[in-house]
Amino acid sequence: MKKIYWNAFEMNCVGHINHGLWKIPGNKRINYKNLNYWTELAKTLEKGKFDSLFLADVVGVYDVYKGGFDTSVKEAVQIPANDPLIPISAMAHVTTNLCFAVTFSTSYEPPYSFARRMSTLDHLTEGRMAWNIVTSHLDSADKNFEIKHLLTHDEKYDLADEYLDVCYKLWEESWEDDAVSIEKNMYYADPTKVHKINHKGKYFDVIGPHLCEPSPQRTPVIYQAGMSERGRDFAAKNAECIFLGGKTIDDITYIINDISERALTFGRSLKNIKMFMGLCIVTGLTDEEINSKVDLYKSFWSLEGNMAHYCGGQGIDLSKYSQDDNINGFAVGEIVNTLNRIDGKWFKVIIGKPKEVADQIQHIIEQTNIDGFNLVQYHSPDTFEDFIKYIVPELQNRGLYQKDYSPGTYREKLFNLKHKYRYNKSQGVNSSRF
Ligand SMILES: Cc1cc2nc3c(=O)[nH]c(=O)nc-3n(C[C@H](O)[C@H](O)[C@H](O)COP(=O)(O)O)c2cc1C
Predict the structure, then answer these.
(1) Which residue numbers delimit the Luciferase-like domain (predicted)?
(2) What mean pLDDT, rounded, does the chain reach?
């Protein structure tokens, strides 16, 4: 049986996906601004043998619903939101195997400084970093940066292509493997082995050299999240891991097949690409325990918060429509109904006792051939602690969850690959991942 990968899905904020639940007494989400929150989380996840912590991020506010950001601010819908990169070194310090996948958009900050931050983290984590590439969809984010001419959706992907190109050159071509020669004790690095990259492109001119010496992975593991035609092509060409949208077996199967076909046309081997889907779980040992959790979540659920999130993401202000109106073939009333359910929104939701949950997970894996899951929270830390206590042993018995970590960097853990990168200039793809 193939290995299944498990990521804890997080964001450096109060309200990530399931809005309103930060108000539950004992929910530690409001401690997101304390380092202790992150180090305790990391220790819990490593004890539970999670593969990685996956951090989402946005750099704008959800300000479409009711024509402004008031609802988002009141309900803490991804605002306040701190920088996701900064707690990682502290989490790395209290763990040895847990890996970190961090979302960073190619649309706003230039690649030179970002490549440096990732190299720094790849050094400090000893090769446990991944970058989830997004191009971002919030108009409000575009307005926060000095983008004089706003880019269209597809232009953002053109820019992302070049962004990644620059990063590859900095990470892979600037410093030769044996440039640093401290063993020889004569000089720190050999200048003939540290190269400028001399990149001149449509969006960026970057001369180099890269400021960091080669980190354990050089290039962090490349994740991608973005499901349009261009997004799927970008993923098929570049990504080693892909975070898919979709919640039904049919949706997920369709997307996996579609991206797989695209990847094959780019000459890549499917064994070098792992597909992940989002998953929410509510569990307990008895029906009473499960029902009381469901009732608790329902009682704190914020329809307003979920509306603000949905409308911001879609760029549609549902407050302007009546329940009977139709948008893109969906009745507004139906959308609102879905947003009002704790099992309704974007990701697959499983509610049940451990064996029932594991049965459903196994069914999803068998039907879709998915490689891994991003586990979404309702409550911090209960969601992950319940999962580790109740579901992990069931999954381990079925071979669907690792019993121990394999050694090495994130890329080695995922693909059993000793990293050796070969950048294929003519194809613009990373041929080591073929
Ligand atoms: C499952 C999933 C998760 C995503 N998470 C984020 C995120 O955390 N931050 C973000 O800015 N965009 C996120 N995105 C969206 C990306 O911004 C994407 O680049 C944007 O939607 C435009 O690409 P697309 O039209 O190809 O989907 C996510 C998309 C998907 C499918």
Answers:
(1) 33-368
(2) 94
